[in-house]
Amino acid sequence: MSRITTRRKTIRITPAGEVRRPDTLAVEEPLELRIGGEPLIVTMRTPGSDIDLAYGFLFSENIIDSVDDIVSARYCAGTDAYDHNTYNVLDIRLRTPTPLPSRRFITNSACGLCGKTTLDQVRTRTRFRPPYGDFTIGSTVLSALPDELRLHQTAFAVTGGLHAAGLFTRDGTALVVREDVGRHNAVDKVIGWAVRENRIPAADLALIVSSRASFELVQKAVMAGIPVLGAVSAPSSLAVDLAADAGLTLVGFLRGETMNIYTDAQRIGIDEAVAAV
């Protein structure tokens, strides 16, 4: 199988002069996803948890409703210059043949929405509507989750070049954490895990991401019925608008004991210690 990190020669400039040494980098490779042998998407991703990535993407795009819709997922032959299988082509066979979207997707590691030209095309209607049950989470627990997420970022620790996403219970327990060069891929990987584990709708979990909260991340959370999305950086205006429209609690700048709650603040229990800051 492909590695998630690799080594490259580098010249490091320091006050003491040049230092020549290898550096550890995150691997970025294409993954072609096929449905019944028909190409659907090529995405740039970090190898690993490709099945979860595929399931999460197909669910977020309304192509599948549950894990029961999938009969098999297998790697196809794809070779490098040395005739080694690159494991970069994944074919999914659906239980019931489903008309695929007329558009095809080509995405890079920075954007999960490339090629979608209008808001109507990306504002996919979720099958789960608010209020997503009675989920709440304390502000003290929520504020600790970015650090908990970082503890599970083993590849980031050696590369500094990967996003992460994780699903957490209301008491702060991490159920799943995935890393990827693309923030949308990392989210697809954790949602794909939830699909496989029959945890959809994920109405009793919070999604935490190590990046900014962009529109496509909010969309994926809404599609999965996740009630709370917390990001260590800023949300975009469109992300806030979609979260407000969908009834999702969106938290940004989740750092230390501070955070900004942009929508549906009733799900965040403000603890006394935080309220006094």
From TrEMBL:
SUPFAM superfamilies: Cytidine deaminase-like. It is found in: Cytoplasm. Signal peptide: none annotated. It comes from the Bacteria. The active site is at C111. Keywords: Cytoplasm, Molybdenum cofactor biosynthesis. Belongs to the FdhD family. Required for formate dehydrogenase (FDH) activity. Acts as a sulfur carrier protein that transfers sulfur from IscS to the molybdenum cofactor prior to its insertion into FDH. The gene is fdhD. NCBIfam families: fdhD_narQ, PRK00724.1-2. InterPro entries: Cytidine_deaminase-like, FdhD. The keyword Acetylation does not apply. This is Sulfur carrier protein FdhD.
